Amino acid sequence: MHTTMETIIYHFPFGLLLLCILSASIAISATNITTDQFALLSLRAQITTTDPHHILAKNWSSGSSICEWIGVTCGSRHRRVIGLNISNMGLTGIIPPQLGNLSFLVSLDVSTNNFHGEVPHEFAGLHRLRVLNLDVNNLEGYFPPWIDSFHELQYLTLRNNSFTGPILPSISNMSKLVTLRLSNNTLQGNIPKELFNISSLEIIDLKGNSLSGSIPDSVCDRLGSLIELDLSFNQLNGHIPSSLGECSQLQMLSLSGNHFISGYIPKELGNLKMLHSLDLAGNRLEGAIPKGIGNATMLKSLNFDYNNITGNCTSPFGLV
């Protein structure tokens, strides 16, 4: 009897511990699922009255699993929301702060809708995010200062909105970024040189903003994978860096519609053997077209219009 009692006393705390852990695990799981559901229903509440096809109003129902809702992808193991794609649905409304509680979210695409207002700062908690696409909406406010918390982000595109303010140097904290598209906003200030320290970048598209200052001379020091650089239709000045000729993988370069009122076309651009498109139109560049440009034998599109340059350039493809 004594031995049996000792056994019960010895094992009871361990069994109780297992029971507590199991109960806590179930509670946390339920809470997390509920949190994801609440976040999505908060989004639906902002847009159901202007959901032209009633897609979310009919499909996003608390009577079914959120993993079966249109546009929602859940992870196979933990059954948390990892993807949300409600692009091209004609939705109007604001993005609620509760969306920042989707802590397992990897990809978010709300592009080509009519969302307005600011992006909630609660998004800073989406540490797993790799894809963020807010293209073609009516979003406004300063370029989010908390966006540098997305250390896993690879694809960031905010085109065709009304974001303003500067691009902060801390953008370099997104060290895994591959694609950056911020075109057609009203961003201001200099392009931070820290941006060009993100060695993984393949696409930089800052077209159609109000960015000023000069292009850093060290633009290609770490961008060995850069294939597209579009800085057109801004207010950039100074000279075009000859170091651009060191971006060996560059296929598209557009600097048109700026204020390069002094300087010339660097002959080093002829070193870009992969270059397909070169657009320097609408500046005030001077001097002759460098003969070395003809060495860029892959060129298919070349535009030097509206400058003060002389001469011509013929490539093996007959471009003049």
TrEMBL record:
Pfam families: LRR_1, LRR_8, LRRNT_2. This is Leucine-rich repeat-containing N-terminal plant-type domain-containing protein. Keywords: Leucine-rich repeat, Membrane, Repeat, Signal, Transmembrane, Transmembrane helix. Residues 35-74 form the Leucine-rich repeat-containing N-terminal plant-type domain. It comes from Coffea arabica.
